[in-house]
Design brief:
The chain is mainly alpha-helical. Helices cover about 80% and strands about 0% of the residues. Helix 1 (about 1-25) runs antiparallel to helix 2 and helix 2 packs antiparallel against helix 3 (about 50-75). It has helices at about 1-25, 25-45, 50-75. It starts with a helix and ends in a 9-residue tail after the last helix.
Length: about 80
Amino acid sequence: MIDMVIHTLVIAGLIASALMVFYFRDLLAAALAAGFFSFLISLEFYILQAPDVAISQAAIGAGLTTAIFIIAIRATTRYEGGQP
């Protein structure tokens, strides 16, 4: 029963963070929401008893990819469309 509640909360968080990535016009906020999405995916993998996949998803998906996005955003304009 509690497993179903945890899975439901993680799935709801995944949907919410995916919608935030889609609707944010601030690229930095969208990159952080994508990092949170990757973190929730790694949490779901861990709950589903795949710790090796969870560790690699957390390291690459949530950590490295988010850092690369933030570095790329620093080199360009922060907001979609070019307005500050």
